[in-house]
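Feature request, filed as a ticket because there's no other form

It would be nice if the structure record came with a short human-readable summary line next to the tokens. Right now we just get the raw output. Example of a typical job, pasted below so the devs can see what we mean:
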Amino acid sequence: MYNPTQIIDEDLLYPSEDGKPMAANTEHFNWIVLLKENLDALFADREDVLVVGDVFWYPVRSQLIAPTAPDVMVAFGRPKGKRKSYRQWREENIAPQVVFEILSPSNDPDEMSRKFEFYQQYGVEEYYTYNLETHDFDVWLRRRHRLVPVRRTNGWFSPRLGIRFELSHGVLEVFYPNGEKFLTTIEMIQRQKAAEQFAEQERQIAEQERQIAEQERQIAEQERQIAEREKLRADSSEQQLQQLMAALRDRGINPEELLN
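Raw output as currently delivered:
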């Protein structure tokens, strides 16, 4: 029998997917991964920073408001962990502060206009778009209740993230606060392998130095023992000579005369 007060599974009311692909092409996907993985690395020590990619954001608990799925978004003040979707009422009503959109031919102007209005209405503080075809890089910052475009974006520092964006020969590059460049997953693996190889070389050099130091210690110990034995022999010879001279004197013989 139907119960009108029956609780409907929230996952059915707020689905986590719409059947559309995550990315329009390989370059689009690679950029999403580049931002997501490097931002994860940047905030690896911060348990209160959540970085997600291609996840539906539901700003309010209403089926009348359609969600949107930023390519990458960062929510400060939210714990790391798995999310089927970002349901803001489950996240202490904290809106993601930073959003990235990587533009591809599949993003039509109407869609991007709707997304902009969504981000403006629901509290995004920093909004970034990068067009893979034209290499246009655009930034909007929140000023009071509106997202305002930034005129000069080359060399731009993110107030929230502390990262830097540079257009090098027309192609966007992103840098950590310490100046290191955002790396692809393959580049990260290669760097890790290189670091491991360097560490192994350093370990081998340290082991060789330890062995050389041990050999030098053993040689020094052998030389000390030889010197000690020679000293003992010298002391023994001197003692024997003194005893002989004493015996001669006991017999009335002057040992100095014999030596002369």
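Something like this underneath would help us a lot:
The radius of gyration is 38 Å.
Confidence is low (pLDDT under 50) at residues 1-7.
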